[in-house]
Design goal:
Distance between the termini: 92 Å
Low-confidence stretches: 206-212, 219-249
Strand order of the largest sheet: 2-1-3
Order of helices and strands: HHEHEEEE
Number of strands: 5
Helix content: 55-70%
Radius of gyration: 63 Å
Number of helices: 3
Mean pLDDT: 79
Length: 249
């Protein structure tokens, strides 16, 4: 239990005691006033009577009321003193309670400030850890990127098919021209030629699944065999021969 709660509880008890004491003092003051009034009435009655015995009785009655009034006055004074003492203690407890509440408010403010600073430090530390992890990850990625090997260039395999039943196609010359063009190219080491000078219609080409290009020779009249090939540009056209890269179908 905090000091303010203790002082608040004590203050409530003292306030209750003071109120009770003031109530008692008021009751005894009223009793004193009633008894003094009764004593006065008895004395007046004794003064009006002609009987000695009645006068004596009224005087004794007046004295009894006076004694009771005096006792009531004493009790009223005692309870009034008690009330004054309780009021003094109540005032002291009120001051202590106010100081305790101020101290607790200040302590709460200091605790909230410490909590705020701790939260800020924790957030800063968390941000620093996240930044460190990001920096480490970025460094690993950079290292991986530097160590990443460039992809191997894929070789270009060209299947060149030629056939001339009548012997009027200049296959040899076209073959030399194509081979010379390949050998003078920038990436000639990546080109592989597979020449078939005596291709037959219907010849199976499925055995060379790694072939990237197929070249078809046709005669001057456009009579040619249709060959399944992969996409690519026209390679050469010379004389009565057309060297083509037909589209794959």
């Amino acid at each position: 239990m905090s000091f303010s709660s203790q002082y608040r509880s004590q203050l409530e008890r003292k306030r209750t005691q003071r109120v009770d004491a003031e109530k008692k003092a008021s009751e005894y003051r009223k009793k004193e006033a009633d008894k003094r009034l009764a004593a006065t009435k008895a004395r007046l009655a004794a003064a009006r009577t002609n009987s000695a015995s009645t006068m004596a009785t009224r005087l004794r009655e007046a004295e009894r009321h006076e004694d009771e009034a005096n006792k009531a006055g004493q009790e009223a004074a005692r309870w009034q003193g008690e009330a004054a003492s309780y009021a003094k203690e109540e005032a002291g407890l009120q001051v202590k309670l106010m100081k305790a509440e101020q101290s607790e408010v200040a302590a709460d403010d200091r605790r909230r400030e410490r909590d705020r600073q701790a939260a800020e430090r924790a957030a800063t530390a968390m941000q620093a850890r996240v930044s460190d992890r990001l920096a480490a990850t970025e460094a690993r990625v950079n290292v991986a990127l530097r160590e990443l090997r460039a992809p191997r260039p894929e070789r270009l395999r060209v299947l060149m098919l030629a056939a001339s039943a009548a012997g009027d196609l200049r296959v040899g010359r076209e073959q030399k021209r194509i081979r010379a063009a390949v050998e003078s190219a920038l990436h000639r080491d990546l080109v592989e030629l597979d020449v078939r000078p005596s291709a037959r219609a219907g010849q199976s080409l499925t055995r060379r699944r790694s072939v990237n290009r197929r070249l078809t020779f046709a005669d001057r009249d456009g009579m040619q065999r249709r060959t399944r090939v992969s996409p690519g540009p026209e390679v050469s056209r010379a004389g009565g021969l057309a060297v083509r890269n037909d589209h794959e179908t």
